[in-house]
Amino acid sequence: MPKQKTHSGAKKRYRVTKNGKVLVRQKNRAHILEKKSARRKRRLAGDTVLTGGDAKRAKRLLKQ
Fold first, then answer.
1. Which of 3, 27, 36, 59 has its CA 20 to 30 A from that of 42?
2. Is residue 57 situated within a structural domain?
3. Inside any domain, residue 2
4. Is residue 33 one of the residues assigned to a domain?
5. C-alpha 10: how far from chain center
6. CA-CA distance, 62 to 39, in Å (whole number)?
7. Torsion angle, CA of 13/15/16/21, rounded to 10 degrees?
8. Does the pLDDT at position 64 exceed 80?
9. CATH number assigned to the domain comprising residue 44
């Protein structure tokens, strides 16, 4: 039986840590940045951890 392929959209969005947590980029930081305050943009920097069913679905798409 052939190997399963990783979902190409998922591999661009999610990252799994050594402990199995799923990291994803925060929303609201892609466009229309002029009207957002510098404080808001700073707080949106960095990754956030997916929880519950979202993390389960991401792991399934990544074949983990």
1. 59
2. yes
3. no
4. yes
5. 8
6. 33
7. -70
8. no
9. 4.10.410.60
Contact indicator for 50, 24 with CB cutoff of 8 Å: yes
Find the DSSP H helices in 22-64: 38-43, 52-61
Residue 1 has pLDDT above 90, yes or no: no
* Full residue range of the structural domain in which residue 40 is found: 8-61
Would residue 16 count as lying in a domain? yes
Task: Report the pLDDT value the prediction gives residue 25, as an integer from 0 to 100.
Answer: 96
What's the pLDDT at 3? 87
Judge if pTM exceeds 0.85.
no
Interval 20-59: pLDDT, tens: 999 999 999 999 999 999 999 999 999 999 999 999 999 9
Number of domains making up the chain: 1
Q: Burial of 60 by CB count in 10 Å (0-12 exposed, 13-18 middle, 19+ buried)?
A: exposed
